[in-house]
Write a structure and sequence with these properties.
Blueprint (H helix, E strand, L loop, with lengths): L2 H6 L30 E3 L2 E3 L1 H10 L11 H10 L3 H17 L5 H8 L8 H4 L6 H4 L7 H22 L1 H22 L9 H18 L4 H22 L10 H20 L6 H18 L1 H6 L2
Antiparallel strand pairs: 1-2
Helix pairs in contact: 4-5, 4-8, 8-9, 8-10, 9-10, 9-12, 9-13, 10-12, 12-13
Length: 301
């Protein structure tokens, strides 16, 4: 074909711009189109007219449904860690009560854990609520503040992940585990604070994070540092060094162990069909902790 024949052949030029030479064909109508008229599609390029026809024949897209404002507000509120906030508020309230002259010692005497008060034959009194109310009582601003800061930070992650009821069970069982450990290994030691429950949340977060494939390095490091601080006074007393720190390693270790166990139960019974199994395992854990309280009654009578 001569150059004159090439220039006179309209198939060698864009059908919409006859002055523009091109060798690209529309994949639908097979007409020549220049770069300006080409629209890339998965099957190739098409011309503007075929693009309009394709858009006209395509089924209409469903309009996105708008969520009612009230439902959005309910869902947003449901995601808030309300149990965490409630525990922080209750603990802060009890701490403020303990600052009132004349009332503070009464609050602490009524709520703090002192193991013999669980055994009437030893103390003449039976006050089992101390196993959990001890979580509300703190000795100083820093004691309460650091525990509540840790609870607020951990609760924001754990409560939305577990749900409010499971999170509350975790907190209470971890606190109970810490109290039971104090009864077993520090029978005559008065203990106050929510540290056992806080350590239980650390243990649960570590186990659950490991099961869901999350990065748990940061949690493991923080937990390790806290365990070192927990045992420093004990190590110091063993080597004859004095320390101003008063930390109940029993409550920390007991809460950590029970929290890790509860986290394992949650991680292994996540399916809806396993809800009954999860409830039975939590009940068995509670019953096991209560049964452990029989040991001191046999040892110290």
């Amino acid at each position: 074909m001569s150059s004159a024949d090439f220039r006179s052949n309209p198939d060698n030029f864009c059908y919409r711009h006859p002055d523009r030479q091109s060798f690209v064909l529309c994949q639908r109508c097979l007409r020549t189109i220049c770069p300006e008229c080409q629209t890339p599609l998965p099957v190739g390029v098409i011309c503007p007219e075929c693009l309009q026809a394709h858009a006209a024949s395509a089924p209409p897209r469903a309009k996105p449904t708008r969520m009612p404002p009230r439902l959005r507000a309910v869902m947003a509120a449901d995601a808030r860690p309300l149990v965490t906030y409630a525990i922080v508020a209750a603990t802060t309230f009890v701490w403020l009560l303990s600052l009132i002259p004349g009332l503070g010692p009464l609050v602490q005497r009524s709520l703090l854990l002192y193991a013999p008060y669980l055994y009437p034959e030893l103390s003449g009194a039976f006050e089992p609520w101390r196993l959990l109310t001890v979580l509300l009582v703190h000795g100083s601003f820093w004691h309460a503040g650091l525990n509540m800061l840790a609870l607020w930070m951990l609760g924001r992650s754990l409560e939305p992940l577990l749900g409010r009821a499971r999170f509350l069970w975790l907190y209470l069982l971890s606190g109970l585990g810490g109290s039971v450990a104090v009864v077993l290994f520090g029978f005559t030691t008065p203990v106050i604070g929510a540290s056992g429950a806080i350590f239980g949340m650390f243990g649960a977060l570590l186990v659950i994070g490991r099961h869901i494939g999350a990065n748990i390095t940061g949690i493991a490091v923080v937990l390790g540092i806290n365990l070192v601080l927990t045992f420093l006074p004990l190590i110091g007393s063993l080597v004859g060094a004095s320390s101003s720190l008063e930390i109940s390693w029993q409550a920390h270790v007991g809460g950590l162990a029970v929290g890790a166990l509860v986290g394992l139960i949650y991680a292994r019974t996540r399916a809806v069909r396993q809800r009954r199994t999860q409830t039975l395992l939590l009940a068995a854990t509670t019953a096991g902790l209560v049964l452990l309280l029989v040991v001191p009654a046999l040892v110290y009578r």
